[in-house]
Amino acid sequence: MTFEIKWLGHSWFKIMADGVNLDFDPLSKKYIKKLGIAEGSGHSPNSDFIMVSHSHGDHWDKETIRSLRGPRTVVIAPKNPANKIGEDVTTIVAGQKLAFERLSVLAIPAYNLRKIYHRRGKGVGYLVTIGGKTIYHAGDTDFIPEMTTLGKVDVALLPIGGRFTMDVNEAASAAKAISPSLLIPMHNLDTDPKELVPLLQGHKNIRVEPMVPGQVIEVKDY
Ligand SMILES: [Zn+2]
C-alpha cells in the first residue's frame, strides 16, 4: 500500500493512502500567500474526503473546498463551519464515528485548557483509519486528557505554535502520551518545528519529521 503525506502548510495535509485522497484543513488563497506556499500545489482535484477541524478561517475555505471537490467527495466538519461551507457537508461532533467503504473516522475533542480561543464542544480532531493505518490530526487544541486514550496511532499531526494551541513542549508531552510511530508538527506559527526533535530524543519509537510546505513523505511500513 502506498501511504504518502503532503504538508501544504499550517494545518493543511493531503493524505494519499490506499488509493484514497484526504485533505485536512485546506487553506484559502490568502493564507497560501501569507505562508509563501506555491499556489496550486494543493489543488489536485477530486479529493475523496475533506475534513475540517473547526470554524477559524485558517482551517478552511469555501473556494478551496470547491476546487478540491469531485462528484463523490465527502466533506466533514463540525456544525460551524459546516453551515458556512454550505454545499452538502456531513456534520460531526466529538465522540462520533463515521464509517465509509475505505475509511473510518472518529472525531476527537479539541479545545484549550487555559486559553480562550477554542472552547470545548466546538472544534474536533480526527482519528482516521485508512488502509490499516491510523492517523490523528489534532486540530487546534492543547494537550488534553482525551489524547491519552486514543489507542494505537501510527501518525500524529500535532500543533506546536503555542498562543492558540499547545506549544512545542506541550506537544512533546502529548506525543509521549500518544506514542505515534511518526510525528509531524503543524500550526507552527513562529516556532521552528525542528525544536520538537531534541525534546523527544529519548523516545526512539517516535520518529519526528519536521516538514517544509509542499514536501511529501512516504510512510513506509514500520
Ligand atoms: Zn483555531
Could you describe the 3D structure shown?
With 222 residues, the chain is of the alpha/beta class. It has one domain (3-211): 4-Layer Sandwich (Metallo-beta-lactamase, Chain A). Helices cover 16% and strands 32% of the residues. It is built from five helices and 14 strands. The protein has helices spanning 29-34, 62-68, 79-85, 168-178, 196-199; strands at residues 3-9, 12-17, 20-24, 47-51, 69-77, 89-91, 97-99, 103-109, 124-130, 133-137, 155-159, 182-186, 207-208, 216-218. The protein has a seven-stranded mixed beta sheet. Strands 7-8-9-10-11-12-13 form a seven-stranded mixed beta sheet, covered by helices on one side. Strand 12, helix 5 (196-199) and strand 13 (207-208) form a beta-alpha-beta unit. The radius of gyration is 16 Å and the shape is globular. The protein starts with a strand and ends with a strand. The mean pLDDT is 93. Residues 54, 56, 117-118, 140, 164 line the site of zinc ion (ZN). Zinc ion binds next to loops.
